[in-house]
Structure formats: structure tokens, C-alpha cells
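Practice record 12: protein with manganese (II) ion.
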Amino acid sequence: MCGTSANNAFEQIVERLAAADSLLLVTHARSDGDALGSILALARAAEGAGKTARLLVPDQPPPRYGFLLGERPVASGGQFAALGDAADLVVIVDTCALGQLEGLEDAIAARRDKIVVVDHHATADDIASVRWMDTAAAAAGVMVSELLDALDWPVDLHTAVALTTAVTTDTGWLRYANTDGRALRAVSRWLDQGVRPDELFREIYQSDRPERIALLARTLAGLRLYAGGRLAVMVIRDADFAATGARADETENFVNEAMRLGSVDTAVTLVENGACVRVSLRSRGAIDVSEIAQRFGGGGHSRAAGLRQHDPIDQLASQLIEACTTALDDARE
Ligand SMILES: [Mn+2]
């Protein structure tokens, strides 16, 4: 059964966590609610068990999750080597892809023996001595919760909020196809413990700045349909940020807005940020967008994937429209 090696990795990571006195908890660049909620929960539970823990992201955590992190410092990529050396164990959570850990490649390779990975994505680079990869897990937060259970580390109310944030954001507030009993059972415990779903929803999804709504309106106005309405594409340029005053981190979830259209199976957003273009892909299931993302150097899940490129945005848009249209046509046959 496929669980044998996974269980083995799970048990090894439980042992490594139990044995470590100090942890460095790392997640991916452009971190989201699952990434930040998962490392914060692991840190707080470890501290409750008498250990020390530091958090690190390669770039900066988005302000949206300030309510979770509070005053807690989050180190950036330049501190990885020093903090990694100081820690007994480095845990990389919610990614196993070097492409999402840019700038850390050499420092990770040099410390591979003391690194373990907890992740639910398909892309698995050789970055760690132990990798617990569970693509069936709705969120890394579900996996972290299971580690905390096995370790018997304490989950206080704020840790429960962090875990609930992790699971609810990665499942689109428990509505995407990855929502399953395992995720709901985890969340139900945190609600019983006192997490308020209405307050959390408001923090995460109803705390936008007017600048973000202006950018969303502009983006939706520019939405284009292809492949007989099955493909929606939205292009957000530097000029759109300039015109609205929105920040680069405020396009999170824009891609999902295209899924309001009944005809759409696949949605793509391209976001320009200087010389770099960030692409998000979503599928309702007709095609596997992680395959398409991989062709362009990215990765992810079958229904949610992403990539980054330095090609001109219009050229990249044409290539992606072509790739998605072909895949949608193939899927129909
Ligand atoms: Mn995740």
C-alpha cells in the first residue's frame, strides 16, 4: 500500500521533531494562509513543548496574515544559513520545490541532512533527508495537525486559529475538491476549541483595502474567454498596480473569481511585477494544470498550480492560452 513509505516518513519526522530542542521552520516564497498558518502552528506547539522555534520565508510574509503572526519576527532568506546552523532541525513546510525557495538552493543543499519536508504538493525536489509527501492532504495544516497529535504537543487557541487558517484557505473555505472528511474532522476540533469561523473569515477575506477592490474590478473588466468559454484569462500589468495603488501581494485569489463563470473550466491569471511574471492556474478538473505549469518551470496540484517566468507578459499569455486550449480540446476527445 502506498501509505507504507509515507508512514515511515511521518514516523521519522515525529522522531526528529521530538528529539530536536531548536527548530527552524521554513515555508515558500509568496506564502499563503496554509504556509504561514502551518509553520506558525508548528512553532507555537513546539514552544509549548519547551523547545525554541524560528520562522523563515524567502521573501516577506504578506500583510494579509499579520493578524496571525502578530509581533512575531519572520526571518528572510538571507538568514537561512545562520539560523539553519543554529537549529537542531530545519522543517520545510508546504513546499518541496526549489523554485519556491529561490535564493536558498545552495544553503539548503549544504544542510540537507538536517532538513525534513512536510508537504502536500506533487513537485518533490531532493532537498531533504526525510520528505513526508501526502498529495491527498487538503492542506499542509492537516499534516501538521497530525504531527502535533502524534507528538502530543499542545494546541492553544491561537495555534488552533493558525491551523484553521491553513486548512480553510487551501480549501477555499472548505469548498474546493480537496475538502474531505480528514480536513473537516481537523477543523471541527478547532471550532470546538473556540475558533470563531465568522471572525476568521472576516480577517482573511473581508479586510480588503479599497485599492485591492479597484484592481479586482479592473482585472475582471479585462477578463477574456477562450476555448469556447472554457478558458478564462486575466492579465494584470504594472500599469494596473500604478493606476489603482494596489500592492503586488493583493492579487491572491483573483484567479478564483473567474470560476464564477459557469462555462469556465480553467482560469489563468498573469501578474506582471517588473521583469517577472507570476502565473496562477486553476482547473475545475477537465485538465491537470500542474502539468501545464511544469512545462513552464512551475508546479502545484492538478487543480491549482503556478509558475514564474521572465518572458514578456503578452508572449507568455499567448503560450499559456495555446497550451490550455490544446489540453482542453484533448480532454474533450
Ligand atoms: Mn498548501
